[in-house]
Design brief:
Chains A, B: GO terms for molecular function: DNA binding; DNA-binding transcription factor activity. The structure is a homodimer. Chain A starts with 8 loop residues before the first helix and ends with a strand. The longest helix of chain A has 14 residues, at 9-22. The first copy, chain A, has 2 domains: 9-72, Arc Repressor Mutant, subunit A (Orthogonal Bundle); 77-232, Chorismate lyase, CATH 3.40.1410.10. The first copy, chain A, is elongated and about 65 Å long. Helix content of chain A is 29%, strand content 35%. Chain A has helices at 9-22, 35-42, 46-58, 77-84, 110-116, 147-150, 164-171, 189-195, and strands at 62-65, 69-72, 87-89, 92-93, 97-106, 124-133, 136-146, 175-186, 202-212, 217-225, 231-236. The A-B interface holds A 59-60, 83-84, 86, 88, 176-186, 200, 202-205, 225, 227, 231-237 and B 59-60, 83-84, 86, 88, 176-186, 200, 202-205, 225, 227, 231-237. β8 (175-186) of chain A pairs antiparallel with β11 (231-236) of chain B, so a sheet runs across the interface. Chain A binds a DNA duplex through residues 8-10, 34-35, 44-48, 50-51, 53, 64-70.
DNA sequence: AAGTGGTCTAGACCACTAC
DNA sequence: TAGTGGTCTAGACCACTTT
């Protein structure tokens, strides 16, 4: 390892490993060399490699399994749902279905341009769908993606319920963090039609921006939710 | 250290230290013995003590400062506000003021009894107040506390804006975790009166239960928020 | 039985804070 | 200058998984 970086050794090892993962040299699911092999490669002790790997595991970049090894983290619909989906009913996290899915390309609105940090000539892919829980419509959802990052999405015949594993598998984009802003708002005419409720009904408006590991915004999503039978849950520690 | 507990050494050290802090033997703000002194006391190595202290720091039970030492964590209005308050405006986290504060003792409702896990004969202290931001009422707040835990609160002349540092300082109760459930709802007649808005206006209803380190619920709070100029922010990683 | 990550030790040196 | 936590090493042994 080169020195004089004024940062701890394990930080430099961590960054070197993160680079291999984020660049795709090590693909999701891949087994990493063991701690001693990495220690030898970087010219540090095994304890230093361990600290770097533990930090990467805390950021969900790798998964460690005693007796098996350390693997590049792979997004599955379950793990993503558990990390990033916060709507519950009395029985726990809900798994809504989708209907009336539409996909289209459009020139971005000002908010889309800002949220996705689009280039001046960039266009967006918009996915709109109504999500149902126990056959009742509860979420009116609009998702905006940069066309530059997700070209090819339009040609798909079907859009799965959970998108983030698709982003990783088909587009090489791994969501690392989401920021959500919540407000109460009256249902618009369009939302009321899709949710089969009166115009003006209070809905929970969730604005979400999803970021990849480099901090670049990759998805903007607005969900209008009826909260008669579900609620948004948050734990603060 | 006694053995045969089938748990790692550092876990046992951590629990022993946590017990001293939670029981009050080591009060908030107190300087702990250094790592080598603790290692000698427990008959383990310094590295094991370090791992225990790092885990306690991650749970906000202690604070570590290079060159100064390790201290029992002390709640201040700032740290608590930063950890547990999620309402923002365009400029960042807001710090609402309070008005029309009322404190009273009452027999608990069924929901209060359930949320606070009250004993059959237990009563509650209710604090109601209207919270303002830039002189506009934005939150209609009701807080319920077990009278058994907070006796003496009624005699106070004033109730501060941030309560959790008061809980720790005056009642020995440290909030470790809060769980919040959010819904959109129409403003009730009472809420509309206090927030100076029409009945039925969509408000963000935040139901919060706060827990201490042992997992016991210590506070139940319902906030009805107008979200014209503020929003609830959540980051998921 | 072989290989992996998890725990634990003993000791060295560095970076920061206080006196 | 003394004392603290932070980093790093080298090595031992344990617990778990796979073959």
């Amino acid at each position: 390892m080169e020195k004089l970086d004024a940062q701890p050794l394990y930080t430099r090892v961590k960054r070197a490993l993160a680079e291999r993962i984020l660049s795709g040299i090590w693909a999701p699911g891949r087994l990493l060399p063991n701690e001693f092999q990495l220690a030898e490669e970087f010219g540090v002790s095994q304890g230093t490699v361990r600290k770097a790997l533990d930090a990467l595991a805390a950021e969900h970049l790798v998964e460690r399994h005693q007796g098996r090894g350390t693997f590049v983290a792979r997004h599955t619909s379950d793990t993503v749902h558990f990390r990033f989906f916060q709507l519950y009913d009395a029985g726990g996290r809900i798994q809504p279905d989708s209907r009336d899915v539409r996909v289209a390309v459009a020139d971005p609105s000002g908010r889309e341009r800002a949220a996705l940090a689009l280039a001046p000539e960039g266009r967006v892919i918009r996915i709109t769908r109504t999500r149902t829980h126990e056959d009742h419509p509860i979420i009116d959802e609009q998702i905006s993606l940069s066309e530059a990052l997700f070209s090819g999405l339009l040609e798909r015949e079907t859009i799965p319920n959970t998108l983030y594993d698709l982003y990783q598998t088909d587009f090489g984009i791994t969501v690392a963090r989401v920021e959500e802003n919540l407000r109460a708002a009256p249902a618009s005419e369009a939302t009321a039609r899709r949710l089969d409720c009166p115009v003006g009904t209070p809905v929970l408006a969730i604005e979400r921006v999803a970021f990849d590991y480099s901090g670049q915004p990759v998805e903007w999503r607005v969900s209008q939710c009826l909260t008669d039978s579900v609620f948004y849950h948050s734990t603060l520690k």
